[in-house]
Amino acid sequence: MRWDFVVVTVVGLVLSFAETSSGGITSSYVHITQGDHKGNGVIVSWVTTDEPGSDTVLYWSETSGVRLLAEGFHVRYKYYNYTSGYIHHCTIKNLEFDTRYNYVVGIGNTTRKFWFETPPKSGPDVPYTFGLIGDLGQTYDSNRTLTSYESNPAKGKTVLYVGDLSYADHYPDHNNVRWDTWGRFTERSVAYQPWIWSAGNHEVDWAPQLGEPKPFKPFTHRYHTPYKASNSTSPLWYSIKRASAYVIVLSTYSALGKYTPQNFWLEEELPKVDRNETPWLIVVMHGPMYNSYVSHYMEGETMRALHEKLLVQYKVDIVFAGHVHAYERSEPVSNIAYNITNKECTPKIDQTAPVYITIGDGGNIEGLAKNMTEPQPNYSAFREASFGHGILKIKNMTHAHWSWYRNQEVNSVTADSAWLFNRYHISSKESSVVAS
Questions:
Q1: Active-site residue, from 170, 221, 296, 399
Q2: Same structural domain for residues 131 and 97?
Q3: Which of 26, 30, 322, 401 is a plausible cystine mate for 106, CB 3.0–4.6 Å?
Q4: pTM > 0.90: yes or no
Q5: Pair (50, 80) in one structural domain
């Protein structure tokens, strides 16, 4: 007799009964993200406030119904005068692709049940829809953005999040209670579909005056990423495959110079991308390389000077960023011709270069960045200081459609949209962006 099967079955039955029982709520919030490199793993994270409780996740696919258990672990941290709850992280591995799973966290009569869908297996013509949100915060406008995204008929399946989450550092003593309230606010989406995390400046939380000299402390305790699966040495930069997209996440607030771990990793990572398996190469970061707003103008110049040549060389399709509290879409643009003697230091339309999209317009607490540089640069295709979210629909290996939705529109009417053409699979002689 297989005793491991018996144990799993008995525990599963207990949890199965518990999920239908009445009782309290064991978790302050639940969130998920991708748990491996290729897309059939999920990291489930949740918080228990009064006691550790269980580190176990019960899960089953809707096709088989066979109930399985995954074991995780929990951590706590202290930040100045705040002590976190018990933060649980559990990685579910070897899931079936393109399958809906139910999962349960908690024990006894304090369980909570959610679900998620795994992506299709990676392939050149696999369609997939991403949502794009950044600088969300937890304000009235934040709620409008998340509500608009949730109700969008385009139905994003995974959010690429470009940084700045809770804005806890905006409050006195970096009030970490704001991390808990942000977790509860976003649970309604991120417990059901993975959000792919990029850290922004508001995640640094470096406060030596409070006795907190370690950067990114709350963020790295609360939001785990599958960085080891892509041979990264830090949870702040990593890569994943999802359907027909290869997503590289960078950290604009970590060391990024020539002899840094992040730069070494990026130089080794880009040549690994198989554009015949995952034709769409997407980079996600917080600080934009191209920005024509007065707010944070030229702040991304260091990263652009260091890494833009790599992005053009390896034919990155789109670079998503936040930080600037507004929206902007560029033409395909590069500024790599400058060699200190030729005076060619003006960005130029370049059909071999990425399209840069700034979408730091989630809601935040600091307001919109309304002042723009004038005249509008020729590489800036569209810009507007309004709150909103984006949808990227990958159609096949050559075509994707981008839409931006401002919050003022009640029925998710697009305020800006464009067809994007794959840098690798479309000849540079063809037009790479067509506004629609």
A1: 296
A2: no
A3: 26
A4: yes
A5: yes
